[in-house]
Amino acid sequence: MKRTRWTKLGAAILTAAMLTGTAGADTISYITSTPITSATTDWTRSLPFQKFSPTLGTLDSVEIKLQGGLSTVLTVTNGSASGSSGNAYTHLQFTVQDPGAYLNAPEIDIMSPKFTYTLASGGSTTSGTLNKNGSSDDLYTLAAILAEFTGSGTIPLSASTFTETLLANTGGNTSAGQITQAQLTGTVIYSYTVPEPATLSLLAAGGLSTFLLRRRRR
């Protein structure tokens, strides 16, 4: 009976030692330290992100979430002797890329609200300010990308915009243009494996050794 109790207790301590040494998973998020504030398109700027510290564990994936928005004013002009009517839009595309150009070009595509117009011969009209927001979410596990995002300091991601005016018109000879402001920010989410807490494992194993030694002496 005493041997049975000793065996069960020893097994319990050994199990605790094994569980203590089990690695786990965790995540950590960083918001861009300097978001790109609203500026006239088209622009090329930089989004810096804090890198993942290898002291936390082993980086498994990098998730990049982008949030962008536009504020646009459209102007439509009819240069014909006949009337015209239709719809105009501003199309804005954000592209973000890492220094090694490994990312799958995370993009946000935004179409402004529709501006509907009817113009007489030689007429011109301007929309009010039209606003629209968009977002993207991309997950990366490529080793080269994980290496880029690991270390000290920040990693700068190049961000740029492409803007165009889309026009669907009937009649006349109509042209359209836009003045657009755009802003962009983002978050990276690091998913990583927590290293095995070896110190705690050794302590648990040491406790088991001490118990076995005392048991033998008895």
Walk me through the structure.
With 218 residues, this protein is of the alpha+beta class. It has one domain (28-191). The protein is 21% helix and 54% strand. Strands 1, 2, 4, 8, 9 and 11 form a 6-stranded antiparallel beta sheet that branches. Strands 3, 5, 6, 7 and 10 form a 5-stranded antiparallel beta sheet that branches. Residues 1-21 have low confidence and may be disordered.
What keywords describe this structure?
alpha+beta; 218 residues; five-stranded antiparallel sheet
| Mean pLDDT over the full residue set | 85
The low-pLDDT segments are 1-21
Q: Number of helix segments? A: 3
Structural class: alpha+beta
Judging from the principal axes of the Cα atoms, what is the shape? Answer: rod-shaped
Distance between the ends: 15 Å
What is the gyration radius calculated from CA atoms?
30 Å
**Percentage of residues in strands:** over 45%
Query: What is the helix fraction of residues, given as a range?
Result: 10-25%
The H-and-E topology, N to C, reads as HEEEEEEEEEHEEH
Number of domains: 1
Query: What is the tally of beta strands?
Result: 11
Q: Strand count, sense and closure of the main sheet?
A: 6 strands, antiparallel
Give the topology.
Layout: H1 2-20, E1 24-31, E2 36-40, E3 44-50, E4 58-78, E5 84-97, E6 107-111, E7 115-119, E8 124-126, E9 130-140, H2 143-148, E10 154-170, E11 174-194, H3 198-217
Antiparallel strand pairs: 1-11, 2-11, 3-10, 4-8, 4-9, 4-11, 5-6, 5-7, 5-10
Helix pairs in contact: 1-3
